[in-house]
Design brief:
single chain, alpha+beta, two-stranded antiparallel sheet, 2 helices, about 45% helix, elongated
């Protein structure tokens, strides 16, 4: 969960010019998380961010 959010925030900062705090705030409001696979004890999470909220 944490890794998915951190990587998505890094992407928003690097590719779309968000400030780190701004990316975190927007992601906490409109971001979505989905569990991909669960195999004890391993699991995958997908972090999503709607394109309509990107600056361009």
């Amino acid at each position: 969960l944490r890794i998915a959010h951190v990587e998505l925030i890094k992407w928003l900062v690097a590719d779309y010019g968000f400030e780190k705090w701004e990316a975190l705030q927007v992601l906490s409001q409109v971001g979505r998380m989905r569990v991909g696979n669960v195999v004890d004890p391993n699991y995958t999470i997908v972090a999503k961010f709607p394109k309509k909220y990107l600056p361009y």
